Amino acid sequence: AWTALNTLFTVSATANSMQLKRKLNSLQKVPKEDISTYFARGRTVQLELAAAEIAVTDQELVMCLLAGLPQDYETIRTVLIGLAQTEYNDVLSKLMQFESTLKASSITPA
After folding, report:
1. Cβ(81)–Cβ(64) under 8 Å?
2. What angle do CA 62, 82, 61 make, to 5 degrees?
3. In the chain, which end has fewer C-beta atoms inside a 10 angstrom radius, N or C?
């Protein structure tokens, strides 16, 4: 009985881990969502993975978040990746500045 229970738990934990990894890799900024909220969603998934004993570095998180940005952010995404700029707080700050510029120029960010 214990073996069956352990097997069931292991299968469930593995499925949960895979679901969380998929969630991280498929993060997308939704229309009207601000950058700080989007980044907070990513951080939440990172913490959920850590609770499942799966480490995700800030660099990996930032790369997933950059990949999920809409076309409006293509230029800054390219620049940040090209500069190997992957420090979470630095990237968040730069994207918030860029978002302000988009809003100020009356281009509605996605």
Report:
1. no
2. 10
3. N
What contacts 24+ positions apart, CB below 8 Å, involve 69-74?
69/29, 69/95, 70/28, 70/29, 70/31, 70/109, 70/110, 71/110, 72/102, 72/107, 72/109, 72/110, 73/29, 73/98, 73/109
Q: What CA–CA distances, in Å, run from 15 to 19, 41, 45, 81? A: 6, 21, 15, 31
Residue 96, pLDDT > 60, answer: yes
Give the Cα separation of 88 and 58 in Å (integer).
6
Could you give the 3-state DSSP secondary structure of residue 99? helix
What mean pLDDT do residues 31-59 have? Answer: 94
CA-based torsion, 109, 30, 73, 46: positive or negative: positive
**pTM of the predicted model, to two decimals?**
0.81
Hey, is 71 helix, strand or coil?
A: helix
